[in-house]
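Target chain:
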Amino acid sequence: MQSVEKIILIGSGNLATQLVKLFIKKGFQILQVYSPHIEHAQTLAALAGCDATDDLEKIREDADLYIIAVKDDAIPEINSSLRLPGKVVVHTSGAGGLDEINQVSNNTGVFYPLQTFSKNRDMDWQKIPLIIEGSNTGTALMLKQFAENISGSVFEMDSEERKRMHVAAVFANNFVNHLLGEAKEILDEKIPLSILEPLVRETIEKAFSQGIEASQTGPAKRHDVKTIEVHLKLLESLPDAQNIYRAITDSIIAKYK
């Protein structure tokens, strides 16, 4: 089974940047970085000490693994333009299937880190779940070995399972962050958002240690109609927040009848 030593990154965003930092630390050789914006490719390539390109036709063909770490809506263009027959090529999308890159190579896969990424934050990759899939047995085994060298939490999922996982992650991550933004707007500038931090941390810790249903509290769980009406009245000046409050309250009431 082929092992991974030489890597080419297609992308220069948050995830690609974190992958470059990881691969340098792990001792992998990064041969090249591609971005349609050459200055972005050059910035990341300088960090990796490798070549940069903004031309898909100039992607080198001597890597063991090609990682497409771009926005989901940029993958179709790469699939239609890049040709690497026989090479192991993976994308990092949680929602995309193997067929997203089926024109690039016959050895395709998915390498999806289940985490939210920013360029300048330090990441503990050993704790980040890595979800992998391969188009054939050889590719799957190669990706499994590669992933286990990075993380202590590796899961093999097919495309449908991964899509379900991705939707769940949107609820647990993106929606929670958005709700914190709504909470900040409700507080206005007079009360700092940081006042909610101990509550948020305790909520998350309890959900995982005691279970979600056992940890649910609040007026909707208690069917406290009077308090709910007071809250809805207060939110009349914030119709988006009011709609969200009403929808989630109705959902909680229905669940805990």
The mean pLDDT is 96. The CA atoms of residues 95 and 167 lie 8 Å apart.
